[in-house]
UniProtKB/TrEMBL annotation:
It comes from the Bacteria. One of its GO terms (molecular function) is protein serine/threonine phosphatase activity. It is an enzyme of class 3 (hydrolase). Keywords: Hydrolase. The keyword Hydrolase applies. It comes from Micromonospora rubida. This is PP2C family protein-serine/threonine phosphatase. Transmembrane segments: none annotated.
Length: 395
């Protein structure tokens, strides 16, 4: 069966970037006699999945399949939905390197064999890679993802992100920004390089476009040092010097830089400000004690020191910005005092990709469903250990 789809990867590579869904549709219809296919993409809040091929799909038809698509998206496993007429809808995850893009729907005339499901899953994998690459060449899929217009600052922030999740034999990592359509300066970045994972979380200064510009300078300065082989300290110092010599200390950026050695779970950290790192082990949620140093850009030629701690297989790390930890709507106690820990404990059976949404929804609920007053970023790292062992939700 899979041999029949051998040319699909080549055909997708040769297709115009805005026509990938149509090319895959033709291949699956011809090869399997499918009566319908569609690509569903996750929106910026990951609050829903939205069709690409049939964006005008009536609400009734959309809602009928939405629950199954969401189940597939959350579980990252194929989901089969048989109808009374004998037809079967197959939902498959569109995921590449752990980055969850959405769900691929294939409607077949009868229940498929295991070999057929595996063949369509391979096509979904090829399509996910092509969609990820095409995102820089066309606006079609970005338009499908947005449920409202992005602010200029948010447009910059989303373009600057490395992705929203990444997987590795030793870890699963995910992040989320809110408010998704108007976020200004809060940000996260990461890079996987051999046995090293580098993660940075920025608590942006000011609001709007000026905050996004400052964050862009900070992130790219750290990337420049990292891509030149610079250590964690060199990344922080280059970014700090760059910001200072542009703004002479009038603006600065609170940043946490982490570097995880994936061979032994040792974490090196530069704490340059306010983002907090918390460790979840079993039902225990504790803040990792780090000595805060000066925010990036506050003074000329600031020098930084590395601190270290370790994680054990099954540990989960959350990194949160001030917009999460210190949120105190209506004069209530900060979200980080007690409510945040409850939300984090509630995620223990979820993978990191779902956990970030749970903590964000807890924050929204704490605000009584009014708009967040400050940007918020949550990053979640599930550490499995070098052998990939860890607890169930980390697999």
């Amino acid at each position: 069966m899979s041999d029949a789809f051998g040319p699909v990867a080549r055909v997708l590579r040769e297709a115009p970037p805005d026509r990938l869904a149509e090319v895959a549709d033709r291949a699956v219809r011809a090869g399997l006699g499918a009566s319908r296919t569609d690509v569903f993409v996750a929106d910026y809040r990951i609050s829903g999945l939205w069709p690409v091929l049939d964006p005008e799909l009536p609400d009734a038809g959309f809602l009928a399949c939405h629950g199954m698509a969401q189940r597939c998206f959350s579980s990252q496993q194929p989901v089969l939905d048989g109808g009374d007429d004998g037809r079967c809808r197959v939902y498959l995850p569109l995921t590449v390197w752990g980055e969850r893009l959405g769900v691929y729907l294939v409607e077949l005339p009868a229940a498929p064999s295991a070999a057929t499901v595996e063949a369509v899953r391979d096509i979904a994998g090829e399509l996910a890679v092509a969609l990820r690459a095409a995102d820089r060449q066309t606006d079609r899929y970005r338009r499908a993802r947005r449920r409202e217009r992005l602010s200029m600052a948010a447009e910059m922030q989303w373009d600057l992100l490395p992705g929203r999740s990444v997987t590795h034999g030793a870890f699963l990592l995910a992040g989320q920004l809110e408010p998704a359509y108007t976020v200004g300066g809060d940000h996260f970045d990461w890079s996987v390089d051999g046995d090293r994972l580098t993660v940075t979380v920025l608590n942006g200064a000011d609001t709007g476009l000026s905050a996004a510009l400052l964050t862009a300078v900070s992130v790219n300065a750290m990337r420049n040092a990292r891509r030149s082989g610079g250590s964690l300290v060199e990344q922080a110092e280059l970014a700090s010097d760059t910001i200072f010599f542009q703004h002479r200390g009038e603006r600065h950026v609170a940043t946490l830089l982490l570097e995880l050695d994936t061979t032994d779970g040792r974490v090196r950290a530069v704490d340059a400000g306010s983002p907090h790192v918390l460790r979840v082990r079993g039902r225990s949620v504790v803040r990792v004690p780090l000595e805060q140093q000066l925010p990036l850009g506050m003074f000329a030629e600031t020098r930084y020191e590395v601190q270290e701690f370790t994680v054990e297989p099954g540990d989960r790390l959350f990194v949160v910005s001030d917009g999460v930890y210190a949120a105190a709507p209506g004069g209530r106690e900060p979200y980080g005092e007690r409510a945040m820990a409850r939300s984090m404990r509630a995620t223990r059976l979820q993978p990191a990709t779902e956990a970030v949404g749970t903590v964000m929804r807890g924050l929204q609920s704490y605000h009584a469903d009014v708009d967040l007053r400050d940007d918020a970023v949550v990053v979640c790292l599930d550490w499995r250990g070098q052998s990939g062992e860890g607890v169930g939700w980390a697999r």
